[in-house]
Amino acid sequence: MATNKRAPRPGFVLDVDKSTPPIVFHHGEGFRLEKLPAGRTRILYPADPLVGLPDPDGAIRDALLHPIDCDPLPALLRPGMKLTIAFDDISLPLPPMRKPDIRQRVIEAVLDMAAEAGVDDVHLIAALALHRRMTEAELRHAVGDRVYDAFAPHGTLYNHDAEDPENMVLLGVTKHGEEVEMNRRAAESDLLVYVNINLVAMDGGHKSTATGLSGYRALRHHHNVKTMLESKSFMDQHKSELHHSNWRQGAIIKDAGIKIFQIETTVNNNTFGHDGPLSMLQKREWEWTARDRASFVTMHNGLKIMKTSHKRKIFNSWQAPYDLTSVQAGEIEAVHKITTENVYKQQLVPVQGQTDILTMGLPYICPYNVNSVMNPILVMCLGLGYFFNLYRGKPVVREGGVLIMTHPTPWEFHPVHHPSYIDFFEQVLSETTNPLEIEANYEKKFAEDEWYRHLYRTSYAYHGVHPFYMWYWGSHALAHLGQVIIVGGDTRAVRRLGFRPASTMQDAFEMASDVVGRQPTITHLHNPPILMADVS
Amino acid sequence: MISATLAGKRIAVTGSTGFLGTALVERLLRCVPDAELVLLVRPGRRGAEDRVRREVLKNDCFDRLRRELGGQTPFDALTALRIRGIAGDVSVDGLALDDAGRALLASCDIVIHSAATVSFDSPLDTAVEVNLLGPVRIAAELQRLGVTPHLVAVSTCYVAGSRRGEAPEELVEDSPFFVDVDWRREVDAARRARQDAEAQSRSPEMLVEFRNKARHELGAAGTPLLAEKTESLRVQSVTDRMVDSGRARASSLGFPDAYAYTKAVGERALCETRGNVPVSIVRPSIIESAWSEPVPGWIRGFRMAEPVIVSYARGLLSEFPGVPEGIIDVIPVDHVVAAIIAVAARGPLPDPKPDVIQVASGSVNPLRYRRLVDLVRDWFTEHPIYDDRGQAIAVPDWSFPGRGRVQRQLDRAKTSIDRAEKVLSALPLRGRQAALHATLEEKRSLVERAEGYVKLYGAYAECEALYGLDRLLALWDTLDADDHASFAFDPRIIDWDHYVRNVHLPTVVIQARVKTTPGAKLGPSRSERLRKQVLDPSRQLAAFDLENTLIASNVVASYSWIATRRLPREDRARFVMKTLLEAPGLLALDKRDRSDFLRHFYRRYDHAPIAQMEADAAEMFSDVILAKSFPAAIRRVREHRALGHRTVLITGALDFLVRPLAPLFDDIIAAELGQRNDGTYDGMMTSVPPTGETRAYALEAYAKSHGISLAESVAYADSSSDLPMLEAVGFPVAVNPETRLASIARKRGWLIEDFHKAPGAPGRLLPIAPPRRGAIA
Fold it and tell me: What is the pLDDT of residue B555?
């Protein structure tokens, strides 16, 4: 529960002047303090965390009993029916949240109602699409021990397997020729309940089922370079071809007669806590107390001398004290409209006009390295994919501008989670970094590779094609930007990504001057906690 | 006119595949148009004629003649007409001639015997058979055939022995310094020495020593390979012993080495046994590259001075013994050839004693050791050799120390390298560190080579004899101007500065194939070239070891993981302690014999439930095998597959533990445990596990049943216990090799790959499974 007494303040745009203290940049499992040029720099700060719902379980129950454009959940449940509950996987929220996880709260509420209605045939599926399977510990964290122990031993709580030909069904093809497929159990259920955690505006809607329970055959129609180039941004569903395609697929799912009860939830911005060791990270630097300063300096210096593996362990153990800010259930599109408004309420920060240079500090985590390693490809995806696209209207940086990110970008990979990434990095990026060439020449080979398929299905590996999607995620930014610089990264790894390595922010600004001149305007995205720029 | 005198003559030549012999044949062919040549060569596998074509006529010595004739075809026509090759062997009584060969030899007017084992470190008996008995056998055979052609025997100036002062052109027995020994006894003694050395090398103590040495070098490579290595060490020791015997016998009689000694006694024996065969003896000094014929600088093979010169230019020989004002008696090969032909043309002297002619330079046109060293140093300073990194190598200054001091220096270097090597080999090194060991070994072999040069040639550099040339110069004076032009052998015309700088050294550098241009090496590196061969589509099979080749784990780690998987928390600590305590014993057993170790260790799976093992193995696949895998190695397996090669995993690990790797391979050959009726394993292996030589057999059997040629196959492994498998294939690859395998791979020029765990891979100190709480369906 939130402990701050003030009413939460909205996001803020600071114009940097001489009195502005050095700014904290996330830098993987560490931080950098950077003094930004006065007079031409602005910093986008996220809003304070919204106050969470006082009674989350009550709110969830209420949403299930009073859904939007839909009968109450109990009315949809009957004995002898097939019920499937699908839920978001390990990629949400980021970082993982403290127990109890929202999924656990929602699933328990749904299961209570199902039990009351006498529903026996219930399956729970982690809707991970082509992500890696969740481990026992991760599933337990998401759904809670009670649910896990009740279902997993009977084989009714499991990970979606998009490469199990027996258990995927083709539901149809959209007018645009996009195939739509789905997990057989979900598709053949009398009711499919989907439990979302909508961390950013991209999440949820038809994308939950059309992507989460789908496979390569269907995903390739929107997880491709062309779609991503036409999604400006993919965080803005109205201007996102990614969403249009998912919505078309959603219509096919609906036409196939699959009854979906969509539950969407939003969380606040309380990523690092109002107090505790990381709390200063969601404060504005000039408001730091002496204690914030002291603990930051201690942490900063401690991290500098620590081994990466230890740092990784420490950061991976951080669980965000997120509060539930809204929960809505019922018909997908109606629900999603409200959810998006609630996400925007927390994250949207109005910004006037574009900038020449966009700077960002990349943190230790992205959707695909929970309990894992942030490899160079994920660095690219987080910076040029996610953070770059956290805009509505126009990109924060002008076309032909420069993106400067800070991240150590180590040449490191998790051998179990990211085997195809390793080969992608060694064999594909060493040849070309052009998304279209990569897509044309390599995607099919990786996507249909038996070994990657085997690892995706039996081990804990992302699908063979996943690194390609990471690269496509950045294609809009790649096409838009004049230059990308990574500060403090492993030189070889940064070059392999096709970016330019700089050892200091000062050097990076010098290098950028070749592209944007000597007096460029600079905007820093002070993220996370997550903010989305509303650029006019 | 020499060519006129020899026209229509039939001349037999022995030793035509050698340096001097080849030059001799070329000159006779080119400058004595009407002579017919009979070349006596050991037939080899394809017969004498073939050997003559391939080993004599193909040599670049004949390029000039080929050119002058207008190409290969007329050259072939000429040689077909004038050259006959006959099978023969001077190291066998009767020369191993067939009837046709005998008839042809009997029809010769002149026999030039230039066959010899010139190697300065020949085993004593070999030198005796060839150098001492060779001329005797030829004379005997000629007598048996009842013919008396002019026998020109090529000997060496060094029959005069290691001594200072004049050494005139006289028979050895006429020299006051010759210690007369009975040549027959020398022959008997040499043969007996061989028998003694053989017998000694077979004594139980020696055999144990060889076996230990082989084990030290190869590790647990399996009985057949160890046996093979042991035997090769034994044979080597006999050879070494015979070389030592030769050197010792030679020096006991005042000769620099076995070559000079056997040649000297051989001359003596020839004079004694020649009967009525007229004999002339030609004694060259140190024969080096040609002064002008067929082309300046022509040389065949790497001769005596070249290795020393190249080692010096490479900066390896920082000192070499010798007397600075001493004379290095060098004579270009074309002078020797011309002198031999002139002697042959002149015919035997009426004198009842054989005639001796020395071909040398020291007494009339001396090349002093200091001058030679200066010339060589200046030349290499101007034209340096470059190291692997493309840096010019600076040549050292020699201070002409005594042989003892150089020897001591080298001994010291060797001792310190030996020590470092001992320390390194005791450490459990892999990959790059192990390569360090191999480098050290290379350094030692360099020091050993330098030591060899000092031992071999030191005596020559210190020799201060002056070889008389009165008869040679007298012969020269009898020749007319034409002969002087075509058969020049007057050593006084040699300009040593020009010879060393412009004729000899450029040739040496080319012959040694050293790097003569600055800058880093262009083009693909050695590893890249080897890798390309390994990944050639025409390969048929790629076999992979598992542990430390594909993953950084072992059977003990897998077992601990499996064993702790379902262990309650409180028992885990006890298990860890127990395993840690057992570890040294297990390691020692593994080192001694891998299959015994596996047999012993797998007993632990007794009563393990089969179904549970399957489930746990599936989890272990992620947590141990993949987490500790080498991504580059897995990529390599997949590359082979993509190229259409069959991929096989051959491992001593248990089949059910490696089954999750199945999609990577076409086949897996692994150890299997017997099963009980109650659904548990019985802890006994159903067959010999595929380790050591069994692995090679398994691979051979596999290849056979799939119609695959192992010569076209690749094998990847990390340890010398995998040697049998690596040796069985045409393209072995050492992956992160441990010390022994690293040096073996380096010596044999195998591809060495450094595969490592993914940087960033989760590290765990002990191979313990994470606590398991419930099943994931």
Answer: 82
- Rounded to whole angstroms, the Cα distance separating B414 from B451 reads 10
In a domain? residue B685: yes
Q: Do B265 and B389 reside in the same domain of the chain? A: yes
**Per-domain residue ranges of chain A:** 12-48+346-535, 56-267
Contact yes or no for B635 and A451 at CB 8 A: no
Inter-helix orientation angle A466-473/A435-447, to 10° = 160
Would an 8 Å CB–CB cutoff place A126 in contact with chain B? Answer: no
Which amino acid belongs to residue B130?
V
Rounded Cα distance between A282 and A274, Å, is 8
B226 and B244 fall within a common domain = yes
A167 touches chain B (CB under 8 A): no
Contact yes or no for A416 and B626 at CB 8 A: yes
Q: A456: nearest CA in chain B?
A: B622
On whether both B221 and B259 belong to a single domain, the answer is no
Q: Which CATH class is domain A56-267?
A: alpha beta
Under 8 Å CB-to-CB from B112, ≥6 apart: which residues? B11, B12, B13, B14, B24, B152, B154, B340, B344
Residue A145 to chain B, least CA–CA distance (Å): 10
Residue B521 covered by a domain: no
Q: What is the chain A residue with the closest CA to B776? A: A152
> Which of B635, B663, B761 is closest, CB to CB, to A423?
B635
Q: What is the pLDDT of residues B108-166, one digit of tens each?
A: 999 999 888 777 678 898 899 988 999 999 999 999 989 989 999 999 988 888 777 88
Residue of A156, A410, A415 lying closest to B631 (CB–CB) = A415
The interface predicted TM-score of the complex, written ipTM, equals 0.89
- Report residue B255's pLDDT band, with 50, 70 and 90 as the boundaries: confident
- The pLDDT of B47-66, averaged and rounded, is 87
Residues of A in contact with B621 (CB under 8 A): 458-459
Structural domain including B485 reads 2-181+253-491+505-512
Contact of A509 with chain B, judged by CB distance below 8 Å, is answered with no
| Fold (topology level) of A12-48+346-535 | 2-enoyl-CoA Hydratase; Chain A, domain 1 (3.90.226)
Using one digit for the tens of pLDDT, what is the confidence trace for B351-374?
778 889 999 988 888 888 888 888
d(CA B385, CA B296): 22
Min Cα distance B556 → chain A (Å) is 21
Give the torsion sign (CA, B498, B500, B504, B508): negative
**Would you say residue B775 has pLDDT above 50?**
no
Q: Are residues B258 and B248 in the same domain?
A: no
Q: Do A423 and B631 touch (CB under 8 A)?
A: yes
Backbone φ and ψ for B626, nearest 5 degrees, come out as -70, -40
